[in-house]
Design goal:
- The structure is a single chain.
- The protein is of the alpha+beta class.
- It has a single domain, classed as Helix Hairpins, CATH 1.10.287.370.
- The protein contains two helices and two strands, in the order H-E-E-H.
- It has a two-stranded antiparallel sheet with strand order 1-2.
- Helix 1 runs antiparallel to helix 2.
């Protein structure tokens, strides 16, 4: 029974890393999709609960910023 408890605590400890990994992949896919859009396409970025029209470059910059933040958080978890 003790072995089952320790394995479940390990999976709980891995959950934040798993979620951050998903976020990183989502941001990478978003950046790739934005890079493949033609310059004439409209892009909307969510700010709070409202979507605002923006340029493709501004959307890429925002996604890159979020990607860097998620990678930094993953590094902090790995170091701890």
């Amino acid at each position: 029974m003790a072995a089952a408890a320790s394995s479940s605590s390990t999976s709980v400890a891995e959950y934040p890393r798993y979620e951050l990994g998903k976020q990183i992949r989502n941001h990478e896919v978003a950046i790739a999709e934005l890079n493949n859009l033609s310059s004439s396409r409209a892009v909307y970025q969510k700010n709070g609960t409202i979507f605002f029209r923006t340029s493709i470059q501004n959307a890429i910059t925002a996604e890159q910023r979020q990607l860097d933040l998620a990678k930094a958080n993953l590094q902090k978890l790995s170091a701890a």
